[in-house]
Task: inverse folding
């Protein structure tokens, strides 16, 4: 199943390019960037991140369409692709072209033909209206500016029964790397902003040790 959409636009920024690569051989640069994607996937596969329970909580069905915003190395993208089957579709959406190429290459190696990589930039979403059953955002919410307006616009791409799943570092009291660098959003803030954007809270789970899991519908 092909989609005529080649570019979707989302305000998600995570630039892993750095100045240390400028004097390296191109093959070494490519390998270094692949290692970063593999590192993301290794971290996502850590048992404490409860990938199996996340999938169960999402309740995906065959034939559904998923937008994995901030897909990184594609760990959850690949899981979603298997869950929705050949009749479904998964959009792996990221600003990092190297990550997207990594996802595309690995999808081909895994024989997953229902994954489409999508470049994100700093404009409004361009996914087709009412085309998505689930938007999944893991550790992405804290990168988005003016989240209320963003999620209000995002409603346009959801099917009538579509949902938005947000996994985000809680932050809050105490010292942590994530709160120190602003890489967290309190669950209460997420719920408040999503309600203001016109969503209702469907599920609020605490099975993750460092992150909240919330599921919303418009």
Result:
């Amino acid at each position: 199943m092909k989609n005529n959409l080649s570019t979707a636009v989302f305000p998600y920024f995570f630039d892993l390019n750095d100045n240390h690569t400028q004097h390296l051989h191109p093959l070494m640069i490519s390998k270094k960037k692949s290692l970063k994607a593999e590192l993301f996937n290794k971290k996502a596969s850590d048992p404490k991140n409860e990938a199996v329970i996340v999938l169960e909580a999402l309740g995906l069905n065959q034939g559904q369409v998923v937008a994995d915003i901030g897909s990184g190395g594609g760990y959850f993208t690949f899981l979603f692709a298997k869950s929705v089957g050949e009749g479904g579709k998964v959009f792996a959406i990221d600003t990092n072209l190297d990550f997207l190429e990594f996802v595309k290459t690995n999808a081909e190696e895994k024989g997953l033909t229902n994954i489409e990589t999508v470049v994100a930039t700093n404009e409004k979403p361009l996914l087709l209206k009412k085309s998505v059953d689930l938007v999944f955002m893991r550790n992405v919410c804290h990168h988005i500016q003016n989240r209320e307006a963003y999620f209000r616009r995002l409603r346009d791409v959801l099917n009538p029964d579509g949902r938005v799943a947000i996994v985000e570092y809680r932050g809050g009291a105490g010292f942590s790397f994530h709160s120190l660098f602003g890489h967290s959003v309190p669950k209460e803030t997420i719920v408040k902003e999503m309600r203001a954007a016109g969503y209702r809270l469907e599920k609020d789970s605490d099975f993750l040790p460092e992150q909240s899991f919330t599921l919303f519908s418009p």
The mean pLDDT is 82. The chain has one domain: 19-217.
